[in-house]
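Notes taken during the Thursday session

The instructor put the following on the board and asked us to keep it in front of us for the whole hour. The protein is Class I SAM-dependent methyltransferase. We were told not to look anything up and to reason only from what is written here. First, the residues (245 in total):
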Amino acid sequence: MYERFAHEYAAHAEDSAYNALYDRPAVLGLAGDVAGLAVFDAACGPGLYARELLDRGARVTGCDVSPTLVDLARARCGGRADLRVHDLSEPLSWVPDGSADLVVFALALHYIDDREALLREFRRILAPDGALVLSTEHPTTGWARLGGSYFTEEPVEESLSPERDWPIRAWRRPLTAICAEFRAAGFLIEELLEPRPVPEMADRYPEDHAKLESLPAFIAFRLIPAPPSPPRPPGRPRPPSRPGR
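Then, after some discussion, the predicted structure tokens were revealed:
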């Protein structure tokens, strides 16, 4: 979807209110100390998160479906990251099991049709003590913008920005459905974050800051692999039947 406006989006996201001063601080905050960690940046876009992760000492691999965005990300990261063109609707067959300490998946979950399958792939490539940090549109934001029932689950075609011709297709879903997919894919929620704008936004983008202080636009999660379920104790043997019964 982003290929036709990749350069415009990359320039916008580098310094915009919602990307630079809202989502990136939230996601990177949930990621925590990444020094020495192997991080997989899924849907890496123009490399804004990847560059920050590298600067914080991580070893970064990642992918995006847009060749233009991958080229921009490689240039931004100066060759320090292994970034590839890959469609996340397909398995990550080139990523070994248990090879990532952290998966970062920023603002892209709502574009995926089979989200559970992708989340299971993330579960596969994560080390047993790893974590998945992701952000997505807050369910109340879509409901406030689109109307209808909050509990509607459907794909919606609209522009990424009301001021630009950036057509996208994304899913609207209630929070219950989002969390159910995490559980079905084998994850537990370690932390849920409804971000607040950083103070700098009040000076640079006062209208956006006021809006985000009253209604969240995104929601972010830190997920960890669920432990395997303990085996059920063997059932008691049935007593032998008595004659005449």
